[in-house]
Amino acid sequence: MDSALNSLNEYLLDPIESVLARSSNGELTIEVKTPLDIEEAIGLPRGNIFHRDLAFPFREDSEVPGWGVETDDPRIFICGAGAKRGGGVSGIPGHNAAMAVLEKE
C-alpha cells in the first residue's frame, strides 16, 4: 500500500494521507487491490470495470456487420460500456443490445 500512496503523492500538492479517514485505532481506512485481486473477488475480467477492453467505435472491414453488442453466445449481448459504440453512461449499448434482440426475433 505504501508504494501506491507514494505514487499518488508524486502528483499531489499535499499528501493523500492528509485527506484519508482513519479507523478508531489510527490506521488509514483505505483498501488497495490489484486488477487481479478484483477479478478474483467479483469476477471482473482482469479487474476491468468495462468487463472487457474498450473497442474503437467503428466496425473493422474484417468484422461481420452487427450492433457491436454481440458475444460468442448468441443469447448474450453486452449492453454496457464494453460494447462497440458504447460509452460509460451514453445508453447507446443498451439501445443497441435491444435492437440486436429484436432483430433476432
Query: Unreliable segments (pLDDT under 50, ≥5 consecutive)?
Result: none
Task: Tell me the number of helical segments per DSSP (H or I, 4 or more residues long).
Answer: 3
The largest sheet, given as strand count, sense and whether it forms a barrel, is: none
**Principal-axis shape:** elongated
Arithmetic mean of pLDDT: 85
Characterise this structure:
The protein is mainly alpha-helical and 105 residues long. It has a domain at 51-105. The chain is 28% helix and 0% strand. The chain has 3 helices and no strands. The longest helix has 13 residues, at 92-104. The radius of gyration is 20 Å and the shape is elongated. The termini are far apart.
Layout of strands and helices, then pairs:
Blueprint: H1 2-9, H2 35-42, H3 92-104
Task: Give a brief description.
The chain is mainly α and 105 residues long.
Supply database-style keywords.
105 residues; mainly alpha; 3 helices; 28% helix; 0% strand
